[in-house]
Write a structure and sequence with these properties.
Chain lengths: 243, 243
């Protein structure tokens, strides 16, 4: 479970409590508001999940080892580029990912505004809790409880007993390395105007996650781009293009 | 949704919020702690469910019109006499009850101790959220959210389109009237020693709910017992038994 910039210490505590209720151990908190984070961790009866939580500065660091990153949030005011899956239908997706040896992260945004577009570009899928149109937005602690009830409970109770046969999926850190290399290549090739850089980076993150690359695919593509980049740079040194 | 003796105003607010999220309108609060109840109702942004909530002194008054009463809670330290149904398996039960024109109440106990044995004797079924053995007990607001996600969302989304064909089920008020009359009859017949009265009343509540009586059954049995009682009393007046 990853909480991005949580504010309310009670919500942080409630999220950790729900993790304990449904048997999840690993909580990561991204850039929390420091005083509230300290308050949540030091609360009387804080579950182990809170004391053992990892703190990271960015979402990409938090999900580096994850092979399937699920974003959450209300979709009333946004149209994500990822596939949106109603929560009940995410159960088999999570189960299959765990069965093939993957690691799943489920990411919750800040209380007021939810995940940003940049946060979402690091997610493979967007999960939607089916709520009433008049009050679609859920309280953070309650949203965590509902998601974990469905995903942790059901995905594990019906876990496939087969050994992982499918090749192991690429983790988020490899995808980020690949994105960085592709971006550098685009720049070196003079493809990406400076003004377009942020937009291209965002689209590239989304695209790489849609491809469902394996770890091996990713290594191969990294190799190709390293080679291309090396050539481009050598050409550039010999024969600088007018920019 | 019925909350029995809730204490924490934040939990009361969270329960009402979850009802709004999943499209439920009717909240009843039984014997709340007055200052906290006032605080919860007057909170900024309190959902309509809270402002329109009904307050009753007893659980039996709260569920008087309900034909299916579902208790909730942790079963680590108790062994209820009712049938216990894991939450996911309660979905078809609720759906069928709504399809035959019944009214369903879901009852949550106080934060610390949960529903009492007497509370449970007014429930037809006990619902259990499958949680981890090391931390089985859920926060009240989160438990409400999880139950409503499962029951309100799913039970309605797959609601049977057929008109109600089965006879209408007995509501809780009729069952209570029947229980009262049976008890009076037992006493008049000299069956129930004073010391056993509370235990007998409890068992009778549980038994009547297990029978799944229709409203018509209940009327008929009430008629029979009224007649019996009338005869017993007439006999008693003529011919007092040594007590």
């Amino acid at each position: 479970v990853v909480l991005v910039r949580p504010r309310n210490p009670l919500n942080i505590g409630a999220a950790a409590r729900a993790m304990a209720n449904f048997g999840l151990a690993r909580l990561t908190v991204v850039a929390p508001y420091a005083p509230h984070w300290r308050e949540a961790r030091s609360a009387v009866g804080a579950p182990r999940q809170l004391r053992d939580a990892t703190e990271t500065a960015s979402l990409s660091a938090a999900v580096a080892a994850s092979t399937l990153v699920l974003g959450t949030g209300t979709l009333t005011h946004r149209k994500p580029e990822q596939r949106v899956v109603p929560l009940p239908l995410a159960v088999p997706i999570v189960r299959d990912e765990l069965a093939r040896g993957g690691r799943v992260a489920i990411v919750f945004g800040p209380e007021k505004h939810g995940l940003t577009r940049d946060n979402l570009s690091l997610c493979h899928l967007m999960i939607e809790i089916p709520t009433h149109p008049l009050q679609p937005s859920m309280n953070l602690g309650q949203a965590v409880a509902v998601c974990l009830y469905e995903l942790a409970g059901r995905a594990s109770e019906t876990a496939a007993p087969d050994p992982p046969l499918a090749p192991s999926p690429a983790d988020s850190a490899s995808l980020d390395r690949l994105a960085g290399l592709v971006e550098e290549t685009m720049e070196t090739a003079g493809y990406s105007p400076r003004a377009m850089r942020a937009a291209n980076r965002h689209d590239l993150h989304v695209l790489l996650r849609r491809l469902a690359l394996t770890q091996r695919d990713t290594r191969r593509i990294l190799g190709i781009f390293r080679r291309i980049l090396w050539r481009l740079k050598r050409e550039g040194d010999r024969n600088p293009s007018p920019r």
